[in-house]
Amino acid sequence: MGPVRLGPVLLLQVLLVAAAGTGEAVYIPYNTSAGVVAGKLNVHVVPHTHDDVGWLKTVDQYYVGSNNSIQGACVQNVLDSLIPALLKDENRKFIYVEQAFFQRWWRNQNDMIKDTVKGLISSGRLELINGGMCMHDEAAVHYIDMIDQTTLGHRFIKEEFGQIPRIGWQIDPFGHSAVQAYLLGAEVGFDAFYFFRIDYQDRDTRKGTKELEVVWRGSKTFGSSADIFAGIFPKNYEPPPGGFYFEVDADSPVVQDDPFLFDYNVEERVNDFVAAALAQANITRTNHIMFTMGTDFKYQYAESWFRNMDKLIHYVNKDGRVNALYSTPSIYTDAKYAANEQWPLKTNDFFPYADDPNAYWTGYFTSRPALKRYVRMMSGYYLAARQLEFFKGRHSSGLTTDSLGDALALAQHHDAVTGTEKQHVANDYAKRLSIGYTRAQELVSISLACLTESGSKSRCSSPTTKFSQCLLLNVTYCPPSEMDFPKGKSLVVLVYNSLGWKREDVLRIPVFSDSIAVHDSEGREIESQLLPMATSSLNIRDKHVKAYLGTLPGAKPKFWLAFPVSVPPLGFNTYFVSNTKKSASVSSKSTLYSPQGSKSSNLQVGQGHLKLQYNAAGALSLYSDSKTQVEANFEQKYKYYIGQDGNGSDPQASGAYIFRPNGTVPIKTEGQAPLTVLRGPILDEVHQQINSWIYQINRVYKGKDYVETEFIVGPIPIDDGNGKELATEIVTNMATNKTFYTDSSGRDFIKRIRDYRSEWKIEVHQPVAGNYYPVNLGIYVEDGSKELSVLVDRSVGGSSIKDGQIELMLHRRLLHDDGRGVAEALNETVCLDDQCEGLVIEGKYYLKIDPKGEGARWRRTFGQEIYSPLLLAFSEQDGGNWANSHISKFSAMDPTYSLPDNVALLTLQELEDGSVLLRFAHLYEAGEHKDLSALASVDLKRVFPNNKIGKVIETSLSANQERAAMEKKRLKWKVEGPPADEKVVRGGPVDPSKLVVELGPMEIRTFIISFGHSISGKQLL
Ligand SMILES: [Zn+2]
Asked: Measured between alpha carbons, how far apart are the two ends of the chain, in Å?
């Protein structure tokens, strides 16, 4: 029963008369106080802004509002104008998401504004949701980075405002991962998770069946214990159709309710609003719908939006057909929960994302492979550097790992590591990483020096030993090792292991001399091998060193020196390299030309039980492991996809986001490529120049049971006018029945079936692009007897396009923009003296074939070693007296202790207040491995043998609340269908006297620990 409605003209006349009679202006008090009304359709009006922490402009340009010719956007304006707008009416509400911006703004405010904002936040009028530094991507990110960047934001919000974000708000990332739902959702204590980008066919289906809102069970292992309510927006994260954009320069009709003025339109606007509400209600369960009132960088003059929303709420509620209210996703979620409905169940993930038949967003899984590798390297380094920061004591010098942490957090943004930003913005992310690394590197060097000089005995801040590190080993550049060591002097190589288990590995460093000996920390000479440097490795050296450091490197080293190292858990070992008459074994070198049709015999490499065989044409043909009895025919090849240029009937081009191939071109070596074989006691290498821009080295180590493939690819030629997307493929005769497995953000493996989605019917218009998935850890296929696994050194796109085959996209160079806003072609170059050439990518992947059921151990345990490579630090020894004045072997843990094979130490970090953030992860899913999927335990007393452990508090994943409190608050959503039959294993509470942490499969447990203030550490030698 609405009020009697007067037509606008009549109303105008009535009011004109009234106003003229009194001589007073008309003031309309808008009633915006509506809450949820039972029995009505409730329209939750959710004001928001979506602020990318870098995309077309850099994060700082977006914040201050510079570079506006690219995009008129200033986040400072948003936040500045928001506060008075919120104060004007106590019912107005707003959510803010990106902490990188919010913190920039917060630092600039005076105490009065800060107090006001604290009041707005504590009363729920301004709600900080999602709460990470950025809205991270979900495909090209590693779960450890997702956790770190979320923790940074969440802890700030807790410390500054005492608030705990309740809602995941991943509205823009390009597809959604299972890890986001269960780990970064349920395990951080979120009650719900909202987003919009899912496959267009999936969305259409869900609209028809009212299944846009679901309970998402992202983890097979955790089952319903990590369920989360997930809401998919029906169209996008903008206002509903019908013209409700109220930015100052928007062209939607404002609500004109002043009868003295022309164009009075209250009734039309109310009708528009009600129509939009009814349309959305038609595809939504319960009588609650959400209007997302905002979009990218909006609310630069917030009053403009709120003024119109006030009027809409006022007049719509007077009209009475629906109930409109200022709301937040938290209020909306509570209303959905209160409806006590059963929701459809969603499992697995939402990859790949397509918004059109020819527009699969699967290109960005690989776009900017160098940035992706840089992010991954820095991620592993940050993990190690925080450990060393803790060993040294956070406050003992001005150096911290904080700026590396901040840079990494920004780099997880959905237009950062994804490669979907403009070039100048990609440069900005890299610059920030470089600055963060430089500071962290200094801290690491000092910390290592302190540990070598005094071990754990005392805090030290200015050690005399100088260590340097080599970030550019991938372009064969390491100044400390590239010198002749005069008599009596030697190169000290300190090898730090950030993992909680002992590690055996082979190091490779560039050296000059062929007369070299390597000694271990006990003075024994150890086996070593010199491998002549390949021209291809040297070619990328000069140019990239000059381009990145601005200086030319010195004389070229002649060899890679390889030697085995053994490093204790959470500790280091030291090796000494010196010139000597007695030389390391120089690898035997043979170059085999295998012209087609020649009768040259097969070639076999491998000094241990793993052998690779090359056929007479110089192609890989057989993998055999005498230990596991695995033998498999396989080929390894390269091909490129021609990037669609967008000139066809569908103008969709292949670009930074979208992979749209226009044909496949195999790259044939045609038996012409010489095969260079290096053999020695530690490893064999097979070098092949595949074509003029692809070089490859396959390595088989004597003591290891996998193949390491190093590739140097690029510049991708574009002189034929075609963009190209380079893939490598491994082809076997395994019968894999369209099925393969890829990881979710580096964690759970998810089953993929070609041209098929497990929960909805798909019509695939792009048979290659539509079957690509993100790969962060690895990809594998299996048949009745074997598993073929490939692990990666960064995030890439991958698939199994044919049975028995695996492919990875290694590099992309494209000449057209793909029309999703970035407005640049993905054509990365490296410039030197104004000469620019396409970017060259160096990288590695790792391959292993196991008996069926055995592959998980390698994928998980070695996968963690790829993520956390050994950290090398170099110094110089004069006169062989290192051992007299230095500790050369060290473990922070009890020397007889090691973490179990299925547990990784994800975080060991001293916090501002001196307490320690500690995180352990079980690496295996339930049922993944017959032994290692079992409950594991970690003995904290032996991890920290020299510390008195005080309080141990278990927290949520993002360390902003106690775990028990989080569990108590958790909403239990009801799911349609019969209850799942599940046996979820999680570790029990930590007994404060025993201090043993148990971890069930896939469990990640986070603790804040307080210590007595001595540094942990145990000198082994
Ligand atoms: Zn965005």
From this structure: 86
Nearest to 484 by CA among 514, 527, 525: 514
195 Cα: distance to centroid of ligand 1 (angstroms): 11
Ligand 1 centroid to Cα of residue 123, in Å, is 28
The Cα–Cα gap between 780 and 898 comes to 29
| b/e 983-1004 (16+ beta carbons within 10 angstroms → b) | ebbbbeebeeeebebbbbbbbb
- The pLDDT score that the predictor gives to residue 265 is 98
Q: What phi and psi, each to the nearest 5 degrees, are found at residue 694? A: -130, 120
Cα-flanking dihedrals φ and ψ of residue 813, to 5°? -135, 115
DSSP of 498-510: -SSS-EEEEEEEE
pLDDT value of residue 394 = 82
Q: How far is the CA of 243 from the centre of ligand 1 (A)?
A: 22
Q: Rounded CA gap, 348 and 350, in Å?
A: 7
Could you tell me the distance, in angstroms and rounded to a whole number, from the CA of residue 453 to the centre of ligand 1? 48
Unique residue bearing structure tokens 């009600």: 274
- Tell me which residue of 643, 510, 525 sits closest to 576, measured CA to CA: 525
Report CA Rg, the chain.
30
- Whole-number Å distance between alpha carbons of 652 and 645: 8
Measured CA to CA, the distance from residue 393 to residue 460 in angstroms comes to 9
What's the 593 CA to ligand 1 centre distance in angstroms? Answer: 52
Going from the Cα of 167 to the center of ligand 1, the distance in angstroms, rounded, reads: 17
Cβ neighbors of 83 (< 8 A, separation 6 or more) are 113, 116, 117, 120
- State the distance from the centre of ligand 1 to the C-alpha of 612, rounded, in angstroms: 46
Question: What's the per-residue H, E or C state across 563-607?
Answer: EEEEECCCEEEEEEEEECCCCCEECEEEEECCCCCCCCCCEEECC
135 Cα to the center of ligand 1, angstroms: 8
CA of 407 to the centre of ligand 1 (A): 18
Q: Which two tokens stand for residue 994?
A: 């025993």
pLDDT digits (tens, 9 = 90+) for 249-292: 999 999 999 999 999 999 999 999 999 999 999 999 999 999 99
Which pLDDT score is estimated for 24?
A: 56
The burial class, CB within 10 Å (0-12 / 13-18 / 19+), for 371 is buried
Q: Tell me, in angstroms, the distance from the centre of ligand 1 to residue 401's CA.
A: 27
Alpha-carbon distance values, 737 to 261, 723, 784, 855 (Å) = 70, 32, 11, 18
Residue 800's pLDDT band, with cuts at 50, 70 and 90, is very high
Ligand 1 centroid – CA 50 distance (Å): 6
Ligand 1 centre to CA of 362 (Å) is: 17
* Ligand 1 mean position, distance from CA 810 (Å): 25
β-sheet bridge partners, residue 612: 605, 623
- Other CB atoms within a 10 A radius of the CB of residue 972 amount to 10
What tokens does 620 get? Answer: 């890989």
Q: How far is the CA of 289 from the centre of ligand 1 (A)?
A: 23
Distance in Å, CA 64 to ligand 1 centroid: 18
**Per residue in 607-628, pLDDT tens?**
999 999 998 878 899 999 999 9
C-alpha 830 – ligand 1 centre gap (Å): 27
Cα–Cα distance between 438 and 495 in angstroms, integer? 19
Q: How many angstroms separate the alpha carbon of residue 170 from the centre of ligand 1? A: 9
